[in-house]
Amino acid sequence: MSSRNEILKRVRAAQPTLIPMPADLTSTAAGDVHKFTEVLQGIGGRVVLMEPDEEVPQKLKELFPSANRVVSSIRSLEAFFLHDHAQLDHHSLEDVDIAVIEAQFGVAENGAVWVTEQDTIIRVLPFIAEHLVVLLDKASFVADMHQAYQRVAYDAYGFGVFIAGPSKTADIEQSLVLGAHGPKSMTILVRS
């Protein structure tokens, strides 16, 4: 017997006993805004629950009083909407203080939001601004990534990403730095 066959024989003999997969990994629990808030705050983000009569532009002024340039991919935010996004040179977004986008849903277990290219209109938008603000409906939370993957599995999109919290690194002298290679903050505005 060749040494190759001897090795393969030993590997086959040393295999662990197979155990069956759980019947159903998916959760039926609804997403919880409180769990989402707790997790997102733990990774450096924040959640702001908006009152039904509050307007987004006013809330932005309240939360970011010194912001100069605010842009948005949301048409209803007319004052901030990037009307020329199809012809826009992405480098012209380098001085954006706040980018406002809308997410399709939030994941309670990890504080992430699901965003597609249709939500951002420019892929770089959520990553180039100093501060990222994401609008999310209170009814759009899922409990875990199993539910999240079920939701995105059959959608038609060219680009999609889960975003959780501001960018961060601890590579610099073992000290946590927020906003090292992306937004310094991530704020989720939850609408009723």
From TrEMBL:
<dbReference type="InterPro" id="IPR003741">
    <property type="entry name" value="LUD_dom"/>
</dbReference>
<feature type="domain" description="LUD">
    <location>
        <begin position="92"/>
        <end position="190"/>
    </location>
</feature>
<protein>
    <submittedName>
        <fullName>Lactate utilization protein</fullName>
    </submittedName>
</protein>
<dbReference type="InterPro" id="IPR037171">
    <property type="entry name" value="NagB/RpiA_transferase-like"/>
</dbReference>
<dbReference type="InterPro" id="IPR024185">
    <property type="entry name" value="FTHF_cligase-like_sf"/>
</dbReference>
<dbReference type="Pfam" id="PF02589">
    <property type="entry name" value="LUD_dom"/>
</dbReference>
